[in-house]
Here is the input.
Amino acid sequence: MHIVVHKTKCQGHARCWAQAPNIFKLDDEGYVLPGDINVAQEDELLASRAVRSCPESALEIDRTSAARFEPADMQPSAGEA
Amino acid sequence: MALNQVPDHVPPEMVGDFSLFTSPGMLPTPDGDPQAATACVHAGPPIFYSPFNTRDGRGTWVITRATDQRRVLQDADTFSSHRSIFASALGENWPMIPLELDPPAHGVFRSLLNPLLSPKRVTALEPAVRERAIALIDSIAASGTSCDVMKDFALPFAVSIFLRLLGLPDHRLHTFVGWANDLLHGDDVKRPAAARTILAFIDELAAMRREEPVDDFMTFILQAQVEGRRLTDEEVRGIGVLVFVAGLDTVAAAIGFDLAFLARHPEEQELLRSEPNRIVLAAEELLRAYPTVQIIRVARKDIDFEGAPIRKGDYVSCATMIANRDPAEFECPETIDLMREDNRHAAFGYGPHRCLGSHLARREIVIGLEEWLARLPAFRIKEGTAPIAYGGHVFGIENLIVDWS
Here is the structure.
């Protein structure tokens, strides 16, 4: 899975880092580092959750490689199933 | 313009009967739920004009959709954050920094202050925060089977963390709580008096640290440089006042609302007590359900927004509690689901002004809940009492008497 980082939209909420500190790295001010991210298959669920909790929508899952990501994406949120 | 008068450019059909100050559920109410009371706006239009939606009686446009609030708060070119909200109480005009600065000046100060409250820095502060929570809760546990969460825990906890951040001793805690109360909840006499007292205190603290630097926040500010120069006295004051005001009752109120929810929901309480690793996620849902702040911007130019003719100088209100109950953004927004994922809540705002203290606030809330649940048995609202909650510019809860006898 590939995540597009819209660096200029990041406002330092750090919700991605809080959920997946090994995938999303922050600079010294607490904003996401620039550069798109390749996510290993075993981390896809965690990474996609982190993407979906960004209040600014600064992270985006690259849909062109979305096929492998389907299981996580299709899963309803806990408690809302 | 007279207070509470609808400006001529506002079409009468766009005036809405809703205010965070005066609508049902907003005045101090026993067992009140002011955040839930704001949800009624979602049945109406995406934007309307409320003539009674500030403390000083000015009207505001009210943005009811989370996605539109995001648009407003991300667009600092159109919507200014400079209101001089503190200084104007004294008849003065200077910004609290960085809140009331607009880009690009905002970014300069934000870069200066961000590292002091970054996630990394907050991790370093965590042991002290936890130690403080434990000390307060152990003392509560030792003294009986009932307490007032606000007076005995939430306020002293939040204020002492802030004192530690500023490098001040704990023994002034009650003085500061008193000032904060007068400033945020006092009448027209108490409020400016408290503002003057806080200002004098900040100026005095700056003078002391200038003379004798120590390793603390104020000394850092005094020694810092922006754009190759030292900060002016007014800038030092603008930062000091904001740090004082912003960190006090917001965190305390959040902890109060959260523990009130848990006191009323024994099964959720037990879930978090038996599985404390769920608290981090639950805290986000509690932030969604019980945010405390109304964010206001001032239009810098005329703009048509979702059919509303916003004119330069108009106030635009982005109430976090309204965004957080938006059904277009959150499935079943009225259901408080402590396992909710994908929680893009607006408790800390959106855009460049995203709450600078959000990471510290989060940790305070999480640690407060962790230690509370670990150290006290099942608790409930004490029989015969009813916590009084209220709306306004900062939502809050006056008292929360809980019992675990």
